[in-house]
Amino acid sequence: MIAANVTAELGGRRGARRRIPVLPLLCGLVLLVVLVCVFGGTALAPDDPTAQNPLLSVSPPGGGHLLGTDQLGHDVFSLLLAGTFPSVVGPLAVALGCLGIGAALGMSGAYFGGVTDTIVNRFTDLVYALPALLIAIVVLGVVGGGYWLTAGVLLFLSLPYEIRLCRSAALVQVRLHYVDAARTIGISPARSLFRHVLPNIMPTVIATFLLDFVNALISFAALSYLGFGVQPSSPSWGRMLSQGQSLITQNPWLSIAPAVLIIITGASATLLGDWAYERLTAAGGTR
Amino acid sequence: MTNFTTSTQLDETERAVDGATILTVNALRVTAGAAPGGRTLVSEVSFQLGRGETLGVVGESGSGKSLTAKAVVGLLPGGLRAQGSIDFAGHQLIDATHRTWRTLRGPRISLLLQDPFTMLNPLQTAGTHLAESLRRDKSLDRGARRAEIARRLGEVGLAPEVADQYPFQLSGGMRQRVALAAALARDPELLIADEPTTALDVTTQAEVLQLLKDIQRRRGMSLMLITHDLRVAFSICDRVQVMYAGLLMEQSPAAVLATDPGHPYSAGLLIADPPVTHYVAELTAIPGSVPHAEDVVDTCAFAARCSWVKPECTAAKPPLVSVGPSRTSACLRLDEIREELRSTLDRIDDPAPPPALPAADNAVVTVTELRKTFHTRRLVGKARHTMALDGVNLQIAHGESVGVVGETGSGKTTIARSLLGLVTPDSGQISLDGMDVSNYRRLSRLTRREARRFVQMVFQDPYTSLNPSLSIGTTLREVLSVRGDVTDPGEEVASLLGRVGLPASYAQRRPATLSGGERQRVAIARAIALRPRLLVCDEPVAALDVSAQAQVLELLRDIRRSDELSTLFITHDLSVVRQMTDRIIVLYHGQIVEAGDTATVLDNPQHTYTQRLLKAAPGVLSGADHAADPAWGEGEA
């Protein structure tokens, strides 16, 4: 996250706004394709991703199978498309949850100060101190996993980043006169926060949303690689990666393809987040 | 070209000052962007500066005065380009090489910047700043360097111990002095000071100006002072040039300009500036706002705001011509209107009787023994306690305007914020028309709502007092929805905008597209939308140009009269307080040191602090009398 802010600043100094934004356009396109696959992946798949073909166990690309087949003869390309849903929806939910809860808590801390701020801050300190992935593995191992439980645990663990960033962005705004003015007019705190503060910290909120998504995407993949989170029958990218590991000599695509997809999706979201932050701060025109 | 001939005429008279010209600027043009589509920000500016002479460059924001100064020191912001000729003692400065600048900038030309709070490195002591700027002379040992630094600090009126202090330990005025010492470290022949006192308190401002003038005289240095305040320019400059929309409007000796303006714009600036000595019945502002330089290429730039405009004014750009001994003006009709210009000044020179005091028996606001201390905890060391208010009593009657005067840190703003419930006082009582609002948090919902409607505030900084992401209309509609009894918000917004003198079409605009004065009008509209009975104005014009200031002050007077509003007017500017208030209280370190009718207090101040404030107001500044006053420098440490 820190790295992302630094790149955003560097980009601002270069004055990248003037150039035709090929890169963000490309990133947006990638994310759009991913989103289409989330909802239509199974329908778009050339073969039935659940259809087994014992005769074609672990074959390299060719013969109607673009990326070959896996151990049970599933078409890898179809598996990838169908796997988009479990790989992306969870992270998306985590990011959305972070956005809502994190922004609300962060802004409240900044606006009310005092006890509220202390509670919010101590909470983030506490969660920061936890070794995130380790905690996730232990909790999921004990409770027994489950897709939405994984999402819940990841949401809890990535809250502090969102809270911190929203709080610091909101702190700048709540000291400005227009927030005081809203208070003296008699506008309720909730309305002040959502109508006056939130629009002015939107660049931070949107950028952190995309970064939260990337973090969750990678954590989800890591957890399903380790066998947590996604049901064994469900073809998520992380699970495919772990399955392909042992078969890398027979069909390397089984592990390369999901890895590449994770990288491309994550990188696209990060770059788009940077660009959006830069763009929105510039357009917001502080004065 | 006319400019050229006039500047040669100037030569003969001006050189008399010290026999030599140090800086000659000819047809200076500053443009942004590439040539064909680029914007012109400064055009056709020519002037000369003699050795030992002081030149004031005056104009509202957007007049190009700062860009002119930055062009002279070669520090134009990226993307801007200077053309023309800037000759400094034989060196051509336009597109000068780095090597040339290294021999000039610092040793021979130096720049003093506006904001003393950001221009010093917070991690370096004052001494380090100075040592950096001093000549790198190997022969000096450490002791000698220390002595030299102490001597330099002494020159700007600071004690040698200041060398070991960090910027955060110094007050604004002291920082500005350190910056001045650093700017003077290489003994430059020309010092360019860009609004050096704008960010300072009146009293500190007067000290720093006096110091600048003393040092300039003692060293025989040339000084170019950039300021938006004519009174500041008059107080220390020999000559003043008035800029407008990137053009020179007039150049005159300061003493002459003060009484006999050579351009309608100069006259407008002079009468927009309210006098501290008496009440004026009507504050006259120049209508409208400064145009962009490229919009007025083939007309008199000021024509759109000038009351003497004739068709010939807009036919072509009037040249700057000589209109008297060492005077030039860009007004075509000066010969015809000179007498009228002079007589407009009478408008503010005629004292009007201040309005009768409202009856003091029906107090709408009563503040009793208000106290507030701020605590700052530090990571290491003892907590700091700052006493902001120390037993303040005050009453405001129905329809009365009470002024609160004092320096930064005197507790003015804390009073305002307590009245509005933005700060909870430690003890004491605030009563608004019978409602006890000493602690807003303890009020019931209903009472709090009533209190919020009773009192509204106009904040100091127009740039942060409006939400940048909401349109003006949305901002106002939100307030109207709180008021609740509005049937047609669209019409009500239009009428509110009309009341503050803005067209209804502004409802669609965002704050970023408005000037400072316009934003402050919107802020006033927002404050009066709830129909409050008390309006608190916290330095509402401190951030505005002199012309916008007059407009906003006159608007506030109007509203106060028609709505019979009580106001609490907080300001550090005594001339504003004279125009805007019936009674004043003078605050010093959280205590009221003097209170009474505005006229009585300002005409015959009793407390030494009030006397000091009055003496410091620019325009009242005369001679070197208070530079010798030892109490001046120490009070701020």
Quick overview:
Chain A is mainly α. Chain A has helices at 2-14, 22-44, 76-112, 114-129, 132-143, 147-174, 177-185, 189-200, 202-225, 237-245, 253-284.
Top keywords for this entry?
heterodimer, A: mainly alpha, MetI-like fold, 11 helices, disordered N terminus, B: 637 residues, alpha/beta, Rossmann fold, 3 domains, eight-stranded mixed sheet, six-stranded mixed sheet, 22 helices, 22 strands, 35% helix, globular, disordered C terminus
Discrete helix count of chain A: 11
User: Number of helix segments of chain B?
Assistant: 22
* Range of helix content of chain B: 25-40%
CATH superfamily of chain A: MetI-like
Count of beta strands of chain B = 22
Share in β-strands of chain A? under 5%
| CATH topology assignment of chain A | MetI-like fold
Number of strands of chain A: 0
The top level CATH class name of chain A: Mainly Alpha
Oligomerization category of the chains in this entry: heterodimer
CATH architecture of the largest domain in chain B: 3-Layer(aba) Sandwich
CA-atom Rg of chain B in angstroms: 26 Å
CATH domain class name of the largest domain in chain B? Alpha Beta
- Overall 3D form of chain B: globular
Low-confidence stretches of chain B: 1-18, 620-637
Q: In the CATH scheme, what's the topology name of the largest domain in chain B?
A: Rossmann fold
Q: Give a short account of the largest sheet of chain B.
A: 8 strands, mixed
